[in-house]
Amino acid sequence: AAGGEGAPLAPAFHAAVFNQPTRNRAIVNIGGIANATILQGDTLTGGFDTGPGNTLLDHWIKQTKGSTYDRDGGWSAEGKPQPALLDALLQDPYFTRTGPRSTGKEQFHLQWLEHAFDGLDSIDPQDVQATLAELTAQSIAMGIKSTDVAIDEVYVCGGGALNTDLMRRLYRQLPGTTLDTTAALGIDPQWVEAAAFAWLAHRSLNTLAGNAPVVTGAVDYKILGGIYPGGLGLKGH
Predict the structure, then answer these.
(1) Residue 184's CB: how many other CB atoms inside 10 A?
(2) Engineering a disulfide at 158: which of 31, 113, 117, 192 sits with its beta carbon 3.0 to 4.6 angstroms away?
(3) Beta-ladder partners of 51
(4) Long-range pairs, 105-108, Cβ under 8 A, ≥24
(5) Distance separating alpha carbons of residues 193 and 181, to the nearest angstrom
């Protein structure tokens, strides 16, 4: 409605609680979809969805092994990423976009995976899982590097922070950069999203803007959401 993207919503919160004036930080949330917040000192310079986070990993292991997720990335860690498959997946135009951008599971799903590469059935399923983990790591790193902000530190939150293999792959993609979870900054990786929406509610209740135009491309700062008290506590005439 304000002329921009509808997501991601958390970067303004990340900027409020995770900035460090003397350091350039990227806050990376790895949920179903991954997103990155770019903090140049205490200035929010950008935020965007980088592409798939856990969604392809979760759906692939569910389809092939019946598990709901790959605990600690143990299955993907034992596989071998397939360069041809990875290159084909990275050809998706989304990965070349810059500036405000968002995506979702309606774009990155198993049908997308199957259509992107002929011969998927010929690859060991475990190697497909390893390739999908590498895709998540590389697309996050590509997004961070595309900003031209020299990032000193990357802090990860969301379920992906618990995936040891994924964190290891992301570390390899960001040489010279400190990588940790938001626990090092005082908020458990699993609590950050809930804290962000509590912060957004507080902003709305106090008629303060919750969006960040530099992130979404909106025309201006806006109060987000609405307050609907319902019938409880209403007084009659």
Answers:
(1) 12
(2) 31
(3) 34
(4) 105/32, 105/33, 105/55, 108/33, 108/51, 108/52, 108/55, 108/56
(5) 14
